[in-house]
Write a structure and sequence with these properties.
Strand content: 25-35%
Order of helices and strands: HHEEEEEEEHEHEEEHEHEEHEHEEH
Shape: globular
Oligomer: single chain
Helix content: 25-40%
Strand order of the largest sheet: 1-2-12-3-13-16-14-15
Number of strands: 17
Length: 344
């Protein structure tokens, strides 16, 4: 499957935190050709392993989460749905947004908004609070109650499309684009002789509590983990000191959540392959699965490798496909040296 098709396939699936099953099954189909075995754990995370066949081999965990932010139905009033958030939803993105209500069968809807003609001057100058918004699914109260149970998840109704100069735009690029990079990494490693067993995780629940990666890491007990996630990409209105250039290469984390030997090994992999990379100083919580994974069992050495992404947690997240390809190359080069250079 080519990169274009992988993006369209992954971004098109619906899978907010706690409801990842459809996207996890799609992710399994993408990963299966390049690993020895795949399975789902109790929290719905996808696990795939490429075994090296060597006694006493180190175990390396590569993680990218599959869940996306979303909404959940909390009530029905006159056929309109009340809702709350799943994960870090920006309420400014919500009015007039098209959504998919994940009942059986799914329903299309729109988040209601007042036309400017009937807004007061006070209303037009502020973002609406989430508790003041409704989803219009075009049903009566009776029919809505029959078809849409309380607790039904909701996602943005959009997929992805390619833009100029190798850019991709869509929902849930955070973090499904990074799972695509794990698939590319697995493909690069498929016929290579390795000195470690590599576990690829498409984890659940990252946007709410990171439980998917934490539980998977506890069960696998790896010697090291690289959390592959997105970081903030550059844009004209964004602070330069907090963003990273699209097209400038993957971003290697530096800080207390990133074991220095692993960060250096990732840097060396990039230099060895003449791949441009960027560095992000992370002085505390990295906002990634590495934060929870590092304290599983007696402690797991962690690193963070990031993909620059514009407009995070919106339905129009934008990335550069060259960054994604380079990230996969850096990661495969890093894995190929485990057991040879002593990074783990």
């Amino acid at each position: 499957m080519d990169l274009h098709t992988m993006f369209l396939t992954m971004a098109g699936e619906k899978g907010p935190s706690g409801f990842e099953e459809p996207v996890a099954k799609t992710a399994q189909r993408l990963l299966e050709p390049y690993v020895d075995e795949t399975w789902f754990d109790r929290l719905g995370s996808l696990v795939g392993v490429r075994r090296c066949g060597k006694k006493g081999a180190k175990k390396i965990l590569l993680d990218a989460h599959l869940d996306e932010i979303g909404l959940m139905v909390t009530g029905i009033e006159e056929g309109f749905l009340r809702f709350t958030e799943i994960g870090g939803v920006d309420q400014r993105m919500l009015p007039d947004r098209e959504v998919t209500v994940l009942c059986d069968p799914p329903l299309m809807g729109v988040i209601a908004c007042l036309p400017p003609h009937v807004q007061s001057a006070k209303d037009s100058d502020k973002a609406m609070e989430m508790e003041d918004l409704y989803i219009d699914v075009g049903l009566s109260q009776e029919e809505a109650e029959r078809r849409i149970p309380i607790g039904t998840p909701v996602t943005y109704r959009c997929g992805c499309f390619f833009m100029g100069d190798g850019r991709v735009c869509g929902k849930s690029m955070d973090d499904r684009a990074c799972f695509v990079s794990l698939v590319l990494c697995a493909k690069l490693l498929k016929d290579k002789d390795l000195d470690c067993d590599v576990y690829f995780i498409g984890s659940s629940r990252e946007e709410v509590n990171g439980a998917g990666a934490e539980c998977a890491a506890f069960a696998i007990a790896p010697d090291a983990c690289v959390a592959v996630d997105v970081t903030h990409g550059d844009s004209p209105d964004a602070p330069k000191e907090k963003t990273y250039q699209l097209g400038g290469g993957p971003v290697i984390g530096l800080g207390p959540n990133c074991v220095r030997t692993l960060s250096r090994a990732l840097e060396e992999s990039a230099r060895r392959q003449n791949i441009p990379y960027q560095q992000e100083v992370m002085t505390g919580h990295t906002g990634t699965n590495a934060w929870g994974v590092q304290v599983r069992r007696e402690g797991i050495a962690t690193a963070v490798l990031s993909l620059p992404l514009r407009y995070m947690h919106t339905p129009v997240e934008v990335l550069d496909t060259e960054d994604l390809k380079r990230l996969a190359q850096v990661l495969s080069g890093f894995v190929g040296q485990i057991g040879k250079e002593g990074a783990v």
